What does this fold into?
Amino acid sequence: GAGVSQSPRYKVAKRGQDVALRCDPISGHVSLFWYQQALGQGPEFLTYFQNEAQLDKSGLPSDRFFAERPEGSVSTLKIQRTQQEDSAVYLCASSGPARQGNYGYTFGSGTRLTVV
Amino acid sequence: SQKIEQNSEALNIQEGKTATLTCNYTNYSPAYLQWYRQDPGRGPVFLLLIRENEKEKRKERLKVTFDTTLKQSLFHITASQPADSATYLCALVYSSASKIIFGSGTRLSIRP
It folds into this structure.
């Protein structure tokens, strides 16, 4: 597609519920990133994929967070047993080249997760 | 760990003036420094990138400087317009294979 697409746009979950957030990157983009953005803060890195390989998951805050990209295109971020502190906007970004530092990322509009 | 500081308070500028946003960082200088624009309810949009061996980069009304001695980048918008109102994020990259680290952003308001 023309841009990075994320769904759902908004998600309200009851505490303890599992959620799955989807990201469709730009077609052909090798690199895919997930970030978490709290209100009034900058995006915080969660995890990075190069094709289907998860090369860095150092930012995942706990073992309740899990991400996958099985075929090297669409990615899913799963949060198990959601807690109130998980409430945030979850941003997905993709980048064409495998080495991404010297290129800008293209971000989706994010999924706003509210845990009640 | 690396710390990135941007103007925490909102910046209010009269239309037509130059807006200058500051990004300071600690520890090691990054290989690349990027600036993004973020509007409410949207993801960040890439604007400009500057490399550690570059002093200045321009794109239309935008100018970025990078001073590795001061550990600072300045982001300028000349002839500012109300449509430039947004949050601007500074982001650091330490190598071409590493993740991007974002600052908390500065909210810019341009009044007519």
Summary: The radius of gyration of chain B is 13 Å. The mean pLDDT of chain B is 92.
